[in-house]
Amino acid sequence: MSASGIPVHNSSATGAPEFATDGHGWAELLPARRPTPPLRGSHRVPWAVVGAGLTGLACARRLGELHPGQQILLLDARQVGQAASGRNSGFVVATSQFAGAVLPGQIDNYRRINRINRTGLDLLSAQVADHGIDCQWRREGFYHTAADAAAMAEYHHFVRYLDTLEVEYQTLDGDELRSLLGTGIYRAGVRIGDGALVQPAALVCGLADSLPGNVSLHEQSAVLGIDGAKPLTLRLADAEVKADRLVLAMNYEAPTLGILRSRLVGSTLAGSFTRVLTEAELTSLGSLGDWGAISLHSGGATLRLTLDHRISIRNTAEYHGSKLLRDDELARRQPVHRAAFEKRFPQLAHVPFEFAWSGVEGISRNGTNFFGRQQDNIFFAGGYNGSGVSRGTAFGTAIADYASGEDSQTVSDCLASAPGAWLPPRPLLDIAAFFIVRSRFRGVGLDR
Questions:
Q1: What is the chain's Cα-based Rg?
Q2: Residues 276 and 402 placed together within one structural domain of the fold
C-alpha cells in the first residue's frame, strides 16, 4: 500500500502483474503493428496519462495541444488496440437509447448525454480525416432493430423519445429491413442518419500513431502503484515516473489502482466474425454494402456487415470478474453466436466463423459515467456502459481541459454525470455484479 492509500496492482502468484490479453479481436484482422517500447528508467514529467484507449488517447492529444512546450507521457499496460477500445462492435453513437418510456424529468439529461456523444463523434470525424486514418470510417448512421414483442415496446418508446428530442430518423417495417439487411427476423426498426461505423482497432491504432510530437506513448508499461505525495510517483516494473498531474483513463481497471473501487466493474462480452463473404453470399444480404444493427433490447445482439465483407455478431455478456474469456471459455460461447447468426441468416448457414473475440466494458450500477478530480492532482474519466467510442473521446478531451483549468460546455456536461451507485466489496461485489449484468440482459428473447 502506498503512502496515499493507493494499492499496488493485483499480481499473480508468480509476482507478474495480470493484464491479460489474447490475440483475438479486431486487431487480429489488421497487419502486424510494431508497438512502442516499454518505459524504462527514471522520468520527471508535468503530465502522465495511464491508459491508451480512446479516452487516454483523446486526453493525451488534447494535453499536447494545450501544453505544446511540455512532455505528456502516455502509458498502457497492453499493446494499443488490445483493450476495450479495440474490442467493441465499432458503433460511434450520436444519439443514445434509454430503455423504457420517456421520462419528462430526464429530458435535459438525455440532451446532455447526446451533446457529449456528438462532441466525441465530431472530434473523431475530424481526426480520422485530418490524419488519414484507414479504419473503415463511415458516418452514415445505423439501425436500431426489434425482433419480438418486448423489443417492439422499446421501439415505440424510442420513436417517442426521438420525437421529443427532435432527432431525425426513419422508421422501417420488417419487409424493408429484410430488403436492406438480408434478414427476416426483425419486425421493425429505426434508422438514425447521424452516427458512424468503424473498425475500432484500426481507429485506435491510427489515433495512437498520429499523436502530437510532445506526447510519448509507451505500450506494455503497466503502472503497478502510485504514491500520492507531490510530485506523484508512478511505479512500473522497470521504471519510475514523477509527474505533477496524472489522468487515469483505465475504465473498468481503475479499481486496481484504488479508484472507484466500489462504483465500477467490468462486464465481459463475446462475439464472432465470419470469413470474408463471397459475392454471391453478399447478394443474399440485401441492398447495402455495409451496415450495423443494434437491438432495441439493451442486451440484444449487435450485428455488423463490415466494409471488408465479414459479418460480426455479438450476443453474449456476463460478469466474469472483469476479465477476458480464455480460449476454451470463448469456444463454449460460440454455439450461442452460431445459433443467433443462423437464426438471422439461414441462407448463410454454411458460412463458417473465422475469428472469435471477447472484450470488457466498464459499467456502473446506475448506468452513470465518471469524470473529475479523484485526489489532489489525480483525475479520472471512464465508465461508459457500452457507449465508449464517442463518449470516451469526448470525456478524454474534456478531462484534459478540466485538469488544465479550461472550461467548456463539454466539461460542464461531463461534470453533471450522476454519482455512481455504491457496490459492496468482494466477495459480495462479484455477486452484485453478476446480478447487475444479468438484469441488463433479462428477457432478451428473439433479439438475442
A1: 21
A2: no
Query: Could you give the 3-state DSSP secondary structure of residue 382?
Result: strand
User: How many helices (DSSP H) and strands (DSSP E) are in the chain?
Assistant: 10, 18
Q: Which long-range contacts (CB under 8 A, 24 or more apart) does 405-413 make?
A: 406/66, 409/115, 410/115, 410/116, 410/119, 413/112, 413/113, 413/115, 413/116
Burial class (CB in 10 A: 0-12, 13-18, 19+), 352: exposed
* Other beta carbons within 10 Å of 108: 10
Kindly state whether residues 188 and 208 are assigned to the same domain: no
User: Rounded to an integer, what distance in angstroms lies between the CA atom of residue 232 and that of residue 225?
Assistant: 11
pLDDT of residue 18: 66
pTM: 0.94
CA atoms within 13 A on the CB side of 146: 22
Q: What is the pLDDT of residues 137-188, one digit of tens each?
A: 999 999 999 999 999 999 999 999 999 999 999 999 999 999 999 999 999 9
Q: Are residues 199 and 325 in the same domain?
A: no
Tell me how many degrees the CA angle 78-369-219 measures, rounded to the nearest 5: 10
Domain of 393 in residue numbering reads as 1-27+34-137+194-264+370-417
DSSP SS3 for 173 = strand
Lookup: cell for 94: 450520436
Cα distance between residue 375 and residue 361, in whole Å: 24
Q: How many residues does the chain have?
A: 448
Q: How far is CA 360 from the centre of its chain?
A: 8
Helices assigned H by DSSP within 345-447: 388-403, 409-415, 428-440
pLDDT at residue 229, rounded to an integer = 86
